[in-house]
Design brief:
The protein is built from 18 helices and 12 strands. It has 404 residues and is an alpha+beta fold. A hairpin with an 8-residue loop joins strand 2 and strand 3 (42-45). Helix 4 runs antiparallel to helix 6 (117-135), helix 11 runs antiparallel to helix 12 (218-227) and helix 13 (259-279) packs antiparallel against helix 14. The longest helix is centred in the last third of the chain and has 22 residues, at 355-376.
């Protein structure tokens, strides 16, 4: 039996949640992300803001130039995550496999649950209805024979849309005369490369397959396949251990020259990474430091460590790497664990067996927290849970930067 896959995608998710919770925002150009006076980008925006040319990922300064009358708000990720959990509980009830792509987006495998196309159509309509009735939010849904086609279908009638692509021929008929960027994995840079070679439409890819493969290599073989509607990928549930890394980073509102302050920020970021890794039961065997300088040049430094999820170890190792980099004004700093594994795949190290070392790390963490608290007159130790939230962490770091 052929696959029956549903792709569900919320409409302007963050903005829609804010409008739902504050009806006075309805019908207005709402932009979620940084404020115009800050550094940063647009996370999402209402459809009213999109009419001015604002879009996700746009620099917030450009968004303000296009839409100075817009309403600008910081995102509330904790609220969005809770709404996301509610959404996925509704969606997952109808699928044998669910692949979450983001907080507001998922592929659902309906092949066995539905049994036929008519029943799958009814499930799709039920998901749309329940999403609106229970959470007062709209979603766009695509029902198709493959993941690529389902994703394309969900974008056809946004917002609050529904579209079906039952067969590969239906998919090809829909996209044949469209720009190559309609195809999955063909982003702006890949499209530019194809356009430069005179390959503009999906039809051109089908007629010049060998040239596409020469231009794009392995990606080219995939692109030519989906240009013919071929996509046999399965819906694959996400598991935390599938992640390549666990990290946290922060962008400063003004460039930072003070590397002692950067080390303090590294400690707070390390605490957050420890919290996230322990929450999903993963350890890393490598630590990466990430910096973006004021001129937007980015660098990373990495080193291998024994299996680790300790904030103190992450901080100490990333701090050593920070001491070795070129000292220039810094715009962004981040730290992450990589080469992840779960408890069952972890071998005990001598440090695990050494209770004194474990106690020493705990004492060092308490000392560093107390030192920071005294310097900035903040109760870090008593508010660690709040500090793990991205928005609180960002506000805290900005407060520290201004009062250093």
């Amino acid at each position: 039996m052929n696959q029956i896959i549903l792709h569900v995608d919320m409409d302007a998710f963050y903005a829609s949640v804010e409008i739902r919770d504050d009806p006075s925002l309805k019908g207005k150009p709402l932009i979620i992300g940084s404020l115009p006076s800050e550094r940063g980008v647009v996370a999402t925006c209402s459809y009213e803001a999109r009419k001015f040319g604002v879009h996700s990922g746009m620099n917030i300064k450009d968004a303000y130039r296009m839409c100075p009358q817009g309403i600008y708000k910081h995102p509330d990720f904790e609220k969005y995550r809770e709404v996301s959990r509610q959404l996925h509980r509704i969606w997952d009830a109808y699928a044998t496999a669910s692949e979450a792509i983001a907080l507001d987006e998922a592929y659902l495998d309906l092949t066995d649950r539905a049994g036929n196309w008519e029943e799958a159509r009814e499930i799709a309509r039920t998901i749309k209805r329940r999403t609106f009735e229970e959470l007062r939010l709209t979603c766009s849904v695509g029902l198709a024979y493959s993941k690529t086609a389902a994703k394309t279908a969900s974008e056809e009638k946004k917002p609050d849309g529904y579209y079906e692509i039952p067969t590969a021929q239906d998919f090809v008929d829909l996209i044949l005369e469209r720009d190559v960027q309609v195809l999955y994995t063909v982003g702006e840079k890949t499209a530019q490369k194809l356009h430069a070679a005179g390959i503009h439409k999906v039809r051109d890819i089908r007629e010049r397959q060998e040239e596409v493969v020469r231009l794009l290599g392995k990606q080219g073989r995939w692109v030519t396949q989906i240009a013919f509607g071929i996509d046999e990928r399965k819906v694959t549930p996400y598991h935390p251990e599938d992640a390549k890394s666990i990290g946290r980073e922060i962008t400063f509102q003004e460039d930072v020259n003070d590397y002692a302050f950067l080390k303090e920020v590294l400690f707070l970021l390390s605490l957050s990474v420890e919290n996230r890794s322990r929450r999903v039961g993963l350890h890393g065997k490598g630590i990466t430091l990430k910096l973006t300088y004021a001129n937007m040049k980015g660098i990373t430094r990495s080193r291998v460590v024994p299996a680790c999820d300790s904030a103190v170890v992450i901080y100490q190792e990333s701090g050593k790497m920070l001491e070795q980099v070129e000292k220039r004004p810094v715009r962004l700093i981040g730290v992450s664990l990589y080469n992840l594994s779960g408890e069952e795949g972890r071998q005990l190290t001598f440090d695990d067996l050494d209770e004194e070392k474990a106690l020493a790390r705990e004492a060092e963490q308490e000392r560093l927290l107390a030192e920071l608290g005294e310097r900035y007159h903040l109760d870090f130790a008593g508010h660690l849970e709040q500090l793990y939230h991205a928005q609180t962490l960002h506000k805290t770091v900005e407060y520290m930067r201004k009062h250093r």
